[in-house]
């Protein structure tokens, strides 16, 4: 049985998702995010498409692609679309003030970043638990790495000062992303961490494909609240 707390979180996600999906206009090329909030966005987009909304979409994960196709959302790819008008995605953490994000706990950060970078606007839909004052205060930072020599990449990340652990599946194997990479979870220092400099350092580390810091990319954040929605 679900608790009142998880019911409230689900309702908040749905409220944010419905508002976010309503921002899509006829004729737009849209990026569809990953995770449970994005799944609610995709459901709502599917409902609007069934009612006649005409869009083309690109998904940020195999799971979102599958859901979108089931809902008969017209899907495209970067061979046919070079620019997206709007991407709607979730986040693990949103830093108040800067709107800097941690993303990737659903394992989709690389495609999410590629899609967001190809997008004119990035709209993030979250429930209130995702708002933080300091990045990394609730979640670790997912970093996508090449499987070959990942042990050495983890060591380099630790040498940079990040406590780092390879993400494992429940059956004890390394978690593999849609891009066939591994994920390393890095603990961010909670005092004096410079997200821009830290992101550059991570990006410059051999073996790292991409990290889950999304800095200066967010256009708007919509937060589902019990009394309605709040837009930052
Ligand atoms: C996946 C992500 C998701 O957007 C993030 O994990 C939030 O997911 P949820 O909406 O389920 O809380 O970055 O890689």
Automatic annotation (TrEMBL):
Residues of the active site: 112
Enzyme Commission designation: 5.3.1.6
UniProt-listed InterPro entries: NagB/RpiA_transferase-like, Ribose-5P_isomerase, Ribose5P_isomerase_typA_subgr, Ribose5P_isomerase_type_A
Entry keyword set: Isomerase
Pfam families in alphabetical order: Rib_5-P_isom_A
Source organism superkingdom: Bacteria
Catalytic reactions of this protein: aldehydo-D-ribose 5-phosphate = D-ribulose 5-phosphate
Broad class of enzyme this protein falls into: isomerase
List of residues binding substrate: 34-37, 89-92, 103-106, 130
Any one GO molecular-function label of the UniProt entry: ribose-5-phosphate isomerase activity
Associated pathway: Carbohydrate degradation; pentose phosphate pathway; D-ribose 5-phosphate from D-ribulose 5-phosphate (non-oxidative stage): step 1/1
A single BP term in Gene Ontology: pentose-phosphate shunt, non-oxidative branch
Role, per record: Catalyzes the reversible conversion of ribose-5-phosphate to ribulose 5-phosphate.
UniProt subunit comment: Homodimer.
Protein name, as recorded: Ribose-5-phosphate isomerase A
């Amino acid at each position: 049985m679900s608790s009142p707390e998880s019911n409230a979180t689900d309702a908040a996600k749905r409220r944010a998702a419905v508002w976010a999906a309503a921002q899509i206009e006829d004729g737009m090329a849209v990026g569809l995010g990953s995770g449970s909030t994005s799944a609610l966005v995709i459901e709502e987009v599917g409902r609007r498409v069934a009612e006649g909304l005409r869009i083309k979409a690109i998904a940020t994960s195999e799971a979102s692609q599958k859901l979108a196709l089931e809902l008969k959302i017209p899907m495209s790819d970067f061979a046919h679309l070079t620019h997206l008008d709007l991407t709607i995605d979730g986040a693990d953490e949103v830093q108040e003030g800067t709107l800097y994000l941690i993303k990737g706990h659903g394992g989709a950060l690389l495609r999410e970043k590629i899609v967001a970078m190809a997008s004119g606007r990035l709209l993030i839909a979250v429930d209130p638990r995702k708002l933080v004052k300091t990045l990394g205060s609730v979640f670790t930072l997912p970093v996508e790495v090449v499987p070959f020599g990942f042990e050495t990449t983890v060591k380099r990340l630790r040498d940079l000062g990040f406590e780092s652990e390879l993400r494992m599946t429940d059956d004890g194997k390394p978690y593999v992303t849609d891009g066939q990479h591994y994920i390393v979870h890095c603990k961010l220092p909670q005092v004096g961490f410079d997200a821009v400099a830290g992101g550059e350092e991570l990006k410059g580390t051999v073996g790292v494909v991409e990290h889950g810091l999304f800095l200066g990319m967010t256009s708007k954040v919509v937060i589902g609240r019990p009394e309605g929605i709040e837009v930052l």
